[in-house]
Design a protein that fits this description.
The complex is a heterodimer. By secondary structure, chain A is mostly helical. Chain A has helices at residues 8-18, 22-44, 47-63, 74-93, 104-107, 128-140, 144-154, 160-167, 171-193. Classes of the chains: A mainly alpha, B mainly alpha.
Chain lengths: 196, 161
């Protein structure tokens, strides 16, 4: 591992890629392609778009390698490109999910002590597969911006300031999006854990 | 940043001090307590879910990326006439005009007064009233002109004074 956490293989591939070696860059693509696709897919939730954006992310990274300072992990740098590519894609297309999450704060008071009642039948036991299914459904209802924040926090385990840096927004915006995304999950999954 | 949002996030992430956390929890309802209890499981499910997403044809990504980065850049099919081009063309034409003016136009001569160009009438008298006679002196002694109007002929004895 080097100072910024690159494995020897990755550091070598990175150094050669920065010298213009496309074969070395192909190796970097292989190392990161699944992770990048996963991040993008979870934000755009469309396989075809996610595939295109994954390719665009790597192409953009290749042409921006000169700007990569090498003081940060390559993974974090390319994740940032991927997240922003996915969010920019949404902004360009101005596509919204059927139930826009922007309406959500009106349904839940920030200081509420209870979650909204769910019309679904409560489960007796918390089933992991069921949880995943419901989680997927609940996440699909979030806006891409809210989705990105909750994924960067819970899946990528980034700090609040790292998320703000990655999404190029303020810490307050991160806190706000995270809060409402969590409240949204709370309301949609409440019946799964209320009885536990 | 709203205090409610910051406090809630910090509490759920366990980033709050035990004293503050205890104080904050008193404000929350049982549902929030249960959520905090279950949150690690939700987080785990989110991570599991993320791991399950995989590329159907991973090598296809490599092939497309390599194709795009190895392809020589396309010549840009933009219009030949663009604003910057027009600006450069204008500047170039101005320079050419200025250069041509310097090369082909005669250099400036020192300005001369009207007296250098205007002939001076030195006499306008004629013995015959039907004849007007003028004699001009060209400046700097470059010659004299005698101008006669109306005579059909000049009599032999005509004298211009």
């Amino acid at each position: 591992m080097d100072d910024v956490g690159h494995s020897p293989l990755e550091a070598d591939l990175l150094a050669r890629s920065r010298d213009g070696d496309t074969v070395a860059f192909d190796g970097l693509v292989t190392c990161h392609r699944n992770k990048i696709f996963s991040i993008i897919f979870q934000i755009v939730r469309n396989e075809e778009d996610a595939m295109d954006l994954t390719q665009d992310t790597f192409v953009k990274a290749w042409f921006s390698l000169a700007k990569f300072d090498g003081q940060r992990p390559f993974g974090a740098w390319i994740h940032r490109i991927a997240t922003n590519a996915a969010l920019d894609h949404f902004r360009r297309r101005q596509k919204r999910p059927q139930c826009a999450f922007d309406d959500f704060p009106m349904k839940i008071d920030a200081a509420s002590k209870t979650t909204p009642a769910s019309s679904e039948v409560p489960s007796e036991v918390m089933d992991r597969a069921e949880l995943r299914r419901r989680l997927d459904k609940a996440i699909a209802l979030l806006t891409p911006d809210h989705r990105a924040v909750i994924l960067l926090k819970e899946v990528e385990d980034l700090s609040y300031s790292e998320i703000a840096d990655q999404l190029r927004c303020s810490l307050g915006t991160v806190m706000s999006r995270l809060f409402y995304a969590r409240k949204h999950l709370q309301s949609h999954l409440s019946d799964l854990y209320e009885k536990n | 940043m709203k205090k409610t949002e910051r406090q809630y996030n910090e509490w759920l992430d366990g980033a709050m001090s035990p004293t503050d956390s205890e104080k904050y929890e008193r404000k929350l309802g049982p549902s929030d307590h249960r959520l905090r209890h279950i949150w690690p499981e939700i987080r785990e499910a989110l991570r599991d879910h993320s791991k399950q997403i995989a590329l159907a044809h991973p090598d296809f990504v490599n092939a497309r990326v390599l194709d795009k980065i190895q392809r020589p850049p396309h010549p840009r099919h933009t219009s030949r006439i663009s604003l910057p081009r027009l600006a450069w063309l204008g500047t170039l034409l101005l320079c050419l005009f200025a250069g041509g003016a310097v090369l082909f136009l005669p250099p400036n001569t020192p300005s001369r007064s009207a007296a250098d160009f205007m002939s001076q009438v030195i006499s306008a008298r004629s013995a015959n009233p039907e004849i007007s006679a003028y004699s001009f002196q060209i400046p700097h002694g470059r010659g004299s002109v005698i101008w006669l109007d109306n005579p059909g002929y000049i009599p032999a004895d005509e004298q211009v004074q």
